[in-house]
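User: Hey, quick favor. My workstation is busy. Could you predict this chain's structure for me?
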Amino acid sequence: MPGMPRKLEPFVRRDQNMPTIRILGIVALSIVTCFAAPAMADEVVNFGVQPSTQPILIAHGAGYLKPIEDKYKIKIVLRSFSYGAPENQALAAGELQIASAGMGPAALAAARLPATLIAIDILDQTAILVPKDSKITSVAQLKGAKIAFPGEGSQQYPLLIKALADAKLDLKDVQLFKTDGSQVATLLANKSVDAGITWDPHVSRALADGVGRVLANSAQIMPIKNGHYIGDGTYVRDDFMKAHPDIVQDLVTVQVKAIDLILKDPDRAIDIWTKENGFPKPVIEYAVKQKISVFDRDIVPSKSTIDAYTIFLKKAGLLNETDNPKVETKFAEQALKDVK
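Assistant: No problem, here it is.
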């Protein structure tokens, strides 16, 4: 895997080095004030991201964030995480004000943390893969298989459970192997596992490199919005949303603007993502042009969509019966009005 690009700053815990302590000291100061006063010069808004095809990376690379920084006298810093759990930990600790992550972690955060879901920014993204030359042709044939997955806190976990259940299989019928989603392609290539479930661009990497093929994709497993699965969500700390709804609005609006760029000029979007997340260009091209990641400018987290998704997560055991994600639709609705 390529190293993280310079523009995305990997999130590092405070006790790992002095420069990080110094930088996060500034962040901690902004957290203490909770942005209760009007934004002052040099205040930092930390936005959690992942090395993927998230629209906020397009907004960053296309220069859409700079006018927001100038307008509010703030610095928007994209903090990169490999998956949702540590991203949610950082949000809970107040080290992030806003974040984009897979819908599983996003819904979990909105249900259990002082945070609210405000947008659905990517559809689909996830797939169950097998080695390209595997004799497995259906999910039912995964009985006894060793399957790589990114952990029980990931949105891939309930999708895998549902795919197995639809094939009349249970978790006890397979052997799960926990790994980072970025490693699935390598494990398939080495025949270390019989199958793996991961998200994009890791799915597209396996396909573009010729080491894997799709056994089942998320749209087939759980079509929930316009025939697609909901892949990625944006959520915000409640204290920041209350103190700075104007900044939140602008950060949601630029994502609609970014999605419009993706839809109208995919080649430019591919070039931006390649620079922003460090993935090879053929991988991003595969993700976009083969529609592994699907984009729709309607990013509103509607009640019917989230209610259906919440039931899905509760059945999978990711949410408790008393867990109900907090949702605010007004930012996405206004963004659609503002971006013509």
